[in-house]
Design a protein that fits this description.
By secondary structure, the chain is α/β, with parallel strands linked by helices. It has 12 helices and 17 strands. Pfam families: Peripla_BP_6.
Length: about 425
Amino acid sequence: MGNKKWYGLFALMFAFLLILSACGSSETVTDNGNDSGDTTTDSNSTSDSSSDSNTDEKKEPIKIGVLASTTGPLETYGKQTIRGFELGLHYATGGTMEVNGHPIEFIVEDTETKPEVAIQKATKLLEEDEVDFLVGSSSSGDTLAVLPLAEEYEKIMVVEPAVADSITGSEWNKYIFRTARNSSQDAVAGAAAIAGDGVKIATLAPDSAFGHDGIAAFKEAAEKLGSEIIHEEFADPAATDFTSNIQKIIDAKPDYLFVVWAGANSPWNQISDMKVQDRGIKISTGAPDIAALTTMNALVGMEGFSVYYHTLPSNEINDWLVEEHKKRHNGEVPDLFTPGGMSAAIAIVEAIKKTEGSTDAEALISAMEGMSFETPKGTMTFRAEDHQALQTLYAIRLEKVDGVDYPVPVLMRELSPEETAPPIRNN
């Protein structure tokens, strides 16, 4: 009778061990290449399962907090950045979503294009989610508000797509790296298109850090080329009526109107309605995203610059981005800020490879200063002095192209990273 008890107990224990073994042999792979549609609280992580019985215990995940405007006037920019960032992680890890054995997770928080909200969301990412990196944001104002937190918590922040010069200038700290171009890089490209001896230029921009930094940088670049800035006009960033702003520009009688703008509430329709070009004033600007290009049919022939349009770069990574974006997003092509999001993700993965998986801030700074990496826009390099990524921009002309219902930025010439290198402003 005692032996039967022992045999029964042994059988029960053996069955229990078999159950434990079966439970421990499966891992979930969540990356299916689909767009979830949820961008405000999205947490994406993937990891490869392995049948190797000798595989070490899974390493801790590397967490990235992405700050973006997924609502508000810069909503489209935020969503472009997020799409690009996810594609960048996929590309840089060869589809594994792992680097040096660490699964990569990213968490998206909506800043609502409000600096006070950006601070709250960044604090939540740093304290509750314990992220290893911050990325963002769509707005320069949001980004400037968050920069001190990167320093306080000693975490690397990769700035994308905010462009205000002060981010890598007066407000910079050593934890800040920027894959986005800055206002001075835009300014060099914009000035190269129109400035020259005796050319009179008026400017229009939003009354914001983005607008003021952009115009200040453009003015400096244009004056170096011999132009005179005869009028500067700053409008409410949330404005929908630009009549009074445009009338002041008309009254100034410039040769060119150079426009710096971001957001869905663009002034292009009113510039056309008020027949600015019919008055002998030529328009120039950075070619915006596709939604804004659809409002610019009256500006066909305009010469300016572009940060990105999917047909401008010629390299394998951009080809991959265009094709993969079409596959994942119902045939849509990547837009203005999609490659920036991808570049930020690639930069982070390449930095982690260089540190062999370490997310220690000092190790990352050492690895990233002077680091070159390949992107959809070609080679970018983090300048050691201010961590601004030097990169290619494009001199373009807006032209009508068969089969496209908006003016298309057509390449006049590439502006090299050396040519568009901005002044170092972080003292």
